[in-house]
Write a structure and sequence with these properties.
Its main location: membrane. With 377 residues, the chain is mainly α. The protein has one domain (2-375). It has 13 helices and no strands. It has helices at 2-18, 23-33, 37-57, 64-86, 88-91, 98-146, 155-171, 178-210, 217-245, 250-260, 266-288, 297-318, 322-375. Helix 6 (98-146) runs antiparallel to helix 8, helix 8 (178-210) runs antiparallel to helix 9 (217-245) and helix 9 packs parallel to helix 11. The protein is elongated, with a radius of gyration of 25 Å. 37% of the residues are buried.
């Protein structure tokens, strides 16, 4: 398992080194920001979403909070894509000429493909969370069964508890469904590939628009916005892949990313920093990640408590003490509390994922309706 995760990280770093952001489009975006209140608002909100995602993984691997911010991020990107495309209605007050029709079709096709990949990701995330919820239910069942009998059984009761919890921890079920995490990674990979293709097509489109007169201003603005959306989408794909594949890399990425958002050239700097952070972690992760499995952070915290209560019970069996009994009771209550909290967070995240899916579908419907309106003019 460890070799797979380490190779995944190496692959991520290699892809980043091969990913070339179009300098002219970045320059066009930075120039367009000057004096454009809409673009400035767009950038500030985008940075806020990126920072929210980063802050959720600075203290470890993937958590329910991390996925919640990722889905909010995807919703925002979809919303901004649609707003940009609907600007074409202004252009479409008159019958679109052939060049404009082809241009609009290209932008719509890219948005449609991108949003389709987003929907696939949301669907797989839903299944991933279901696996986590099933894991929660299994842990809850085992822990409740352990304490279903009266403590009057004395030592035999604690031996029973220790045996069941050791079996639970060793089974790997406490980590959740690994195959579900693998499928989620596959969906992120599809999303990343589509975004890279979108960036290349937008680069070609921008080159054509640079040769046009000022009448192409709106088209260029739409292209620039979609370019930044694609870059932001590609960035989040890289982050999700890294955090899922190699959770140990998350703190280093978080610490490196936050200062970059304050710079004027934050897009280029974020990609460069990501590449460096991944490469710096490669050797270390060979040892750290060996034999581990993908897990939501909250499940890892619960496993830590399960292992701790097993050690406490073992101590009690070797040296009976009322103080140790009290500590066991305290730890078990802590497990129960964390299980309850985790279940609430999973339910909230399910709702957020459903909302993300519904809003992306609604946005796609708006674009389709807009196409029909423009084609009928």
């Amino acid at each position: 398992m460890g070799s797979h995760e380490t190779s995944t990280l190496c692959t991520i770093a290699l892809r980043l080194s091969n990913t070339k952001l179009d300098g002219r489009l970045i320059s066009s975006y930075q120039e367009a920001l000057q004096g454009d209140a809409d673009l400035q608002c767009f950038e500030n909100t985008l940075k806020t979403h990126i920072k929210a995602v980063i802050n959720t993984f600075r203290n470890g691997g993937p958590s329910t909070g991390f996925f919640k911010q990722v889905t909010k991020y995807l919703r925002y990107l979809s919303e901004q894509s649609v707003h940009a495309l609907l600007r074409c209605r202004v252009i479409g007050k008159k019958k679109l000429n052939r060049a404009s029709e082809e241009r609009f079709k290209l932008l719509v096709d890219e948005y449609t493909n991108n949003s389709s990949q987003m929907l696939d990701f949301c669907s797989e995330l839903y299944r991933f969370l279901k696996a986590a919820r099933d894991t929660h239910s299994y842990i809850e069942y085992v822990t409740q069964e352990c304490f279903a009998m009266e403590t009057a059984m004395g030592t035999r009761h604690y031996v029973r508890i220790s045996k069941r919890l050791k079996s639970l921890s060793a089974s790997g079920d406490v980590y959740g469904n690994f195959s579900s995490a693998e499928r989620l990674l596959e969906k992120v990979e599809c999303l990343r590939k589509q975004q890279e293709q979108m960036l290349e097509k937008l680069r070609v489109q921008n080159e054509k628009l640079e040769k046009k007169e000022s009448s192409a201003h709106t088209w260029r603005k739409v292209t620039i916005i979609l370019f930044v959306v694609a870059v932001a989408g590609l960035l989040i794909s890289m982050i999700v892949t890294a955090v899922l594949a190699v959770p140990a890399v998350a703190p280093a990425l978080g610490a490196a990313f936050v200062p970059m958002l304050a710079s004027a050239d934050w897009i280029t700097n974020l990609f460069g920093t990501f590449q460096i952070a991944c490469k710096d972690q490669q050797g270390e992760n060979v040892c750290i990640q060996a034999g581990t499995r993908v897990s939501i952070k909250e499940l890892g915290d619960i496993k830590f408590l399960i292992d701790r209560v097993v050690n406490e019970i073992d101590s009690l069996l070797f040296a009976p003490s009322s103080t140790i009994k009290e500590q066991i009771d305290f730890t078990m209550k802590d497990i129960k509390l964390k299980l309850e909290t985790f279940m609430r967070e999973i339910e909230t995240l399910h709702e957020e994922t459903n909302k993300c899916t519904a809003e992306i579908r609604k946005a796609r419907d708006k674009v389709v309706k807009s196409i029909k309106i423009l084609n009928n003019k």
